[in-house]
Structures are given as structure tokens and as C-alpha cells.
User: What shape does this take?
Amino acid sequence: MSTWTETTLTTWGRSRFARSSTTAPADEAGLREAIRESHARGVITYGGGRCYGDASLDDGGQTILTSALNRIVSFDAETGNIVCESGVDFASLLSRVLRDGYCFPVSAATASVTVGGAFANDIHSKNHHRVGSFGDHTLWIDLMLASGELVRASRTENADIFHASLGGVGLTGTVMRVCFRLMPVPSNSADAQYRPMANVDEMIDTIDGSRESHEFLFGWVDAMATGKDLGRGSLELANLAPDDVGVAPEPATKRIRFEPPSAALHPAILRRITDRRFRKMPAAGWGARVNLRPFLFPIDNIVGFNRIYGKRGFYSIHTGFPRETQRAGIVAVMEAITAARAGSFAAVMKPMRGPGEGLLSFPMEGMAYAIDLPRRTGVEALHKEIERITLDHDGRLYIAKDALMTAETFAAMFPRLDEFREVLARIDPDGRFQSDMGRRLGLHP
Ligand SMILES: Cc1cc2nc3c(=O)[nH]c(=O)nc-3n(C[C@H](O)[C@H](O)[C@H](O)COP(=O)(O)OP(=O)(O)OC[C@H]3O[C@@H](n4cnc5c(N)ncnc54)[C@H](O)[C@@H]3O)c2cc1C
Assistant: This one.
């Protein structure tokens, strides 16, 4: 018998909570037992809890924590192929792989994400235009199904299960192990330039014009700017450095010690802060050789960053648009946000190349625009408006960040949903794997 503990779980946005029985199996037998003991409300897997909404929550149900599935099974320093249990996070992997001259081809902006969570959302980074998403570097997974059977899934073996599980938000089963390919790096550093961008047009044009010349492209957007300044910000353009000579010292870690009251997030105050940030940038930009750790995981330098929006938490809207409509779509989203006097410190733009292989993968050839929005009156209505704008421009929303999308919108944005449901119907006919997100978005057959 597994040991189950009643726990309240939340995720990064702190807008969604679940009361759930949790257990943390440490091996294959323990995982099988936990899945078999799940009851009618179902079970879901919880990795680092770094999704923003309800993807890893099952209120009233049971939750498998992967915190004890945390071993590196093998690492081949010749090929760069690594096999990890799914609860291994990127933070614990980083120093191990850098020592042998490798890094992750794809990671999130925080190293607290687990390998299982990276696969289950098919995550993408600021180098997506060059390397694609996490699934593109995954060779196989070992997945425990609702029946308790452990199957190997890859492009050649159980390929339908592989493609349903990649970005499948934990509904096909619990990933026990992941084998993926690391990226060789010449040093532990990147050469980065930071250039001020006057508006959204300059930002989009410079990103698109730099796809060939730069491995990493990442725009910070001043989401409070309007009119001719709409979409201004700074663009980070970077390549891996040949060596570590002259690397800048790692920035000091900051800590958010208290949750500001909602009055502190008043649009006028936010606007003053983002305006000051933009005006402080040198007009000619600047460059630096930076250490890969803070470069890849900038959010981790601010401990407790998710408390910055106050006790009520926040939502994130992460849109993606195809090349043809990216400019019009992003401008319409920015205008809707400024008209609603919403906005925040964190708004970013990244280029994307073609689609991920997962049936529910987010990326497409084009551009992603993402923004955190404090949870205030009116933000749900704004989200509805952005769903409509995104659909009208043939875009989609990223469910790793989602807490609000409707099932109808989801079905319209993800054309392979029926294929996903067919796989679920076959491998989990009783719907043993369940989540609040799965029910909200109607992901089950
Ligand atoms: C600060 C911050 C920055 C981020 N930046 C990026 C970014 O740049 N790019 C990007 O793509 N995403 C980004 N994300 C989102 C994040 O990468 C994803 O939400 C990721 O899935 C979180 O992984 P996790 O281990 O925390 O999993 P959780 O949040 O616990 O779970 C996420 C989903 O994965 C499933 N899951 C987790 N482990 C397993 C497993 N072993 N087997 C089966 N299913 C599993 C869960 O059921 C759930 O559906 C960011 C998140 C944060 C908080």
C-alpha cells in the first residue's frame, strides 16, 4: 500500500489550488501501486509545479509526486545522451552536464522544471527558431499506463503513445524515465547583446532579421507603453561563447520577501516602473559575456518571483501566431491589454520555428508573445477577448501557462485533439488519469 497524505497543492500562478491525496513513489513498483490505488476522481502526476494553472492539479483526486523519482540513470559523455527519472530537475542536472561540455538544448526560464514536466508540455526556449522544442531532442520515454503496464514509447515504438504524451499534460500516464540528447557547448558562457527596441514593429523585424545570425532571441516588452511606443522594449540577441574569458560575475540573487498589496500594482505605478526601466537603457545597447546559468534561468535570480503580484496570484497569457498574422495578432493583443489598463512587469516575445511533434504541442512557425497579468477584476473578461483575437488570427494559447481557456476555444486551436482523444480511449478507457485542466478543456474522449 502507498502512503497517501492529504495536501493542498498549487502551481506557479497561485490562482488555482487543489485538495488532493498525494504520494511520492520511489521506484517502478511503487508507481504501479499508486496508479492502481487511484479512485474514481482519478490521478494526475505533479513534477516541479511550475505550470501556471491547473495542468498538474486534481482537486478531490489523487496526485503522484515525482520528487522521489530523481535519479540520473545513465549519461554517455560521448554522445550526450542522458537517461533520467522524470522527477530530475534541470537545476540538479546543470552542473553535472556542464562539467562534460554539454548543456540542455531546450529548457524553461527556471531550472525548477522537471524532465517529466518538460516532456509533458513539450517546452520551448528562446532558441526555438534554431533547435525546436523538448520533444525534438527526446529519444524515448518509459511511460506507466493506467493499467500499470510500463511501455517504452518513441518515434518507432508505440509512436502514437509517444506523440500523445509529448505535450499531453500528464493524461496518458506517468512518465517514469526520459532519454534525451544534450547539446555540446564550447564553454559555460554566452555572448549577449541587449538592444533597445522603439516599438513592436522594430521588435518583430529585428527578431525575424536575426533568426539566422543568433541562436538565442528574446524580447522583453514594456507592456504598459501605448501609441507610437506600443511594444517597445529590449531585445537580447546571443550566441554561445567560444570560451569563458571575461565572463561577467553572476548577478546577486534577489528575494521577494512580501506580497505587495493590490494598490501597489495600480497601472499608474506599473507604468512608472516599466517607463523607468526602458529609459535607463543605453540608447546604443550594450553587450556582455554571461554565464549560462543566469542566462538560461533568469527567473531563478529572483527568489519568490511569483509573490510579486500579491496574494491573489496571477494569470499568464502565452499566445503564438503564425508568420502571416504574427504582427497583426500581437498588436491586437497588446492593444487589448493596454485598453483594459492591465499589464505587468513580465511580457516577452520569442520566435518559433515549425510545429512540435506532439498532438497537443504549442509551437508553430511564427512568434510567441506572453504576458503575466495580476489577478484583478476584469482580467477574466480580458482573457476572453484575447482568446477571440488569437483565434481570429489563427493563433493558439500555450496550456502550460493556461488557467482560463474554454473547451471550445481549445478545440478550435488544436486540430489534433481528436487523435489525442483516440489514444486516451485506447490506453485509459476508464479515465484513470484526470486533472482539473483535462476536465476544463474537455481533453478526454
Ligand atoms: C518562471 C517560469 C518560466 C517558464 N518558462 C518557460 C519557457 O521558457 N518555455 C516553456 O515552454 N515553458 C516555460 N515555463 C512552463 C514550464 O516549463 C512548464 O509548465 C513545465 O511543464 C513545468 O514542469 P514541472 O516539472 O514543473 O511540471 P508540473 O507543473 O508539475 O506539471 C506540468 C504538466 O506536466 C505533467 N507532468 C509532470 N511530470 C510528469 C510525469 N513524470 N509524467 C507525466 N506527466 C507529468 C503534469 O501532469 C502537468 O500536466 C515556465 C514556467 C515558469 C514557472
Notes: Residues 11-12, 44-51, 55-56, 66, 86, 108-110, 113-114, 116-118, 120-121, 123-125, 169-170, 174-175, 299, 400 surround flavin-adenine dinucleotide (CB under 6 Å). Residues 326-339 form the longest helix (14 residues). The domain at 189-404 is CATH 3.40.462.10 (Vanillyl-alcohol Oxidase; Chain A, domain 3). DSSP finds 13 helices and 21 strands in the chain.
